Structure formats: C-alpha cells, structure tokens
Known about the structure:
The chain is α/β, with parallel strands linked by helices. It has a single domain, classed as 3-Layer(aba) Sandwich (Rossmann fold). The chain has five helices and seven strands; from the N terminus they run βαβαββααβββα. A hairpin with a 2-residue loop joins β6 and β7. α1 packs across α2 and α1 crosses α5. The protein is globular, with a radius of gyration of 15 Å. The model has no long low-confidence stretch (mean pLDDT 89). The site of magnesium ion has 5 residues, from α2.
Amino acid sequence: MPDHNRAPLRLETLDLPDEGTTRALGAGLAGMLTALPATSLGLRIYLHGELGAGKTTLVQGLIAALGYTGRVKSPTYTLVELYTLSRLNLYHFDFYRFRGESEWREAGFSEYFDSDGICLVEWPEKAGNTLPQADLDVTLEIDGDGRRATIAAHTLAGAQCFDSLTRSSSHEKRS
Ligand SMILES: Nc1ncnc2c1ncn2[C@@H]1O[C@H](COP(=O)(O)OP(=O)(O)OP(=O)(O)O)[C@@H](O)[C@H]1O
Ligand SMILES: [Mg+2]
C-alpha cells in the first residue's frame, strides 16, 4: 500500500473535463511506459477513486495507446487481465471484490508485483496493507460532470514516468 504519510517525490492535479481526457491521460502514461529503460520495468500504478470515477477508462486509454484494438474489459470478476503489448506485460487488476488480506494472499498474485511487468490496480486498498508500495498513485475524483486526477510519484521510477508524463501533457493544470 502506498504510504500516504510520506511526502511523494512528485505531485500534480489535472482537470479531466470529459471521458476523452481521462483516456488521453492513460495514453500519456502509455507513452511514458514505452520510453522507460528496461531496468525501470516492474512498475506499479495504483488507481484510486470511487465507483465510476474513471479508473477503467484510464486503463482503456493506456492499453489502446499501446496498440491493442480489442475490448479492454473491466476485470471486476476475473480479478486480472493480462495484455502483452510491445515488450510490456501489463496486468490490469481490480480488487473491488476482495475482503482484505487473506483473500489477497489466497489469490497468489504477489509474484506479479515482483515481476518486471506493469501492474495497474483498481481498488488497491481492498487488498489490505499487503500490496507493495506504488511507484505512481493516480486518484480520480468526480468533479461536477468531469473528473479531477491527482498523480503522485513515490519512487525514482515513478518520478521518471511522472516527469515524462507532465512534460508531454497537454492537460490543463490546476492552479
Ligand atoms: N473525465 C471524465 N469526465 C466525465 N466522465 C468520465 C470521465 N472519465 C470517465 N468518465 C465516465 O465515467 C464512467 C465510469 O468510468 P469507469 O468504469 O472507468 O470507472 P471506474 O473507476 O473503473 O469504476 P469501478 O470502480 O466501478 O471499476 C464511464 O461512463 C466513463 O465514460
Ligand atoms: Mg473499473
């Protein structure tokens, strides 16, 4: 679990006025993943936010930008969907249905988090306190008809991603 008591290395809030901008943020994350050196692979991106906040939409934008043309399903029931795209193994998790640490342990997913894959996790908090520290936390909040995203980088790899994301970002920054 991310340690919210520790100050993140980077922090920024963006306005996402419509679904397209949530997808575009996902596409920006995809661009930064493909630019990562192989030594920085094994990245954990945790997506926070209430039901309907846009977490799956962001992942859809990310996976589509990596060239996947199929339908990106929400892994609400399967718990994980794997996508192998270019040189990346992406694991899209949704732990909404977990009821704490024991279910997380029984599911046997920890090896994915120690691999050189990219773990995108919806509802990480449902796994209790067992998940490793996130490299990037993205928190989506409903804001009128749109959304607001807060991106926090906690590790050097996360900060590297964050920097390439915000450099290329055409999103409106909040003052
Ligand atoms: N920036 C935005 N502005 C307005 N609507 C948006 C925005 N981003 C996503 N949406 C819409 O929000 C709805 C819910 O999105 P999504 O399924 O991605 O949420 P979620 O966070 O994955 O929810 P859950 O916790 O149930 O998995 C979709 O209809 C999507 O089009
Ligand atoms: Mg979802």
